[in-house]
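Sample 3 of the quickstart, ligand zinc ion:
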Amino acid sequence: MNSNSSALHDLVASKLESAGQVYTQKRRALVEALLNAGPCTLPELLLSGEDIAQSSAYRNLTVLEEMGVGRRLVHYGEYGRWELSEELTGHHHHLVCHSCDVIIDVELPTHIEHLMDEEFERAAKGSKFAVDRHNIDIVGTCANCQETTQA
Ligand SMILES: [Zn+2]
Ligand SMILES: [Zn+2]
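Result:
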């Protein structure tokens, strides 16, 4: 475990503790798997090599979501995908493959993020809408699926 990941686990532990929750070994394994794998489904988490029990995984993911540690991604496929919250990993966007539903994290340059936020404020102003944050997916076809269709 590198120092980044131990700092992240400390942060998660203190978030859970302050809400009266225990950072159990099973929850720690889920956070470690999400940290290493990026956005993934429950079946993928179970195959991650971390010691994750199928019986408690969904319940623990829900607790992590309620605590602001995990985030369930709304998307287009059969399975929900989970990732760590942006508070822990930083703001980013998602490449979403409409063929296999894989999700890949991408970051944009800070000045582009600022420009987008300014434009969103401007666009929302007419509706007297108060903007908190933006949440933008980029939809297309992943490298694997492009290969499959060309073969
Ligand atoms: Zn993400
Ligand atoms: Zn953004």
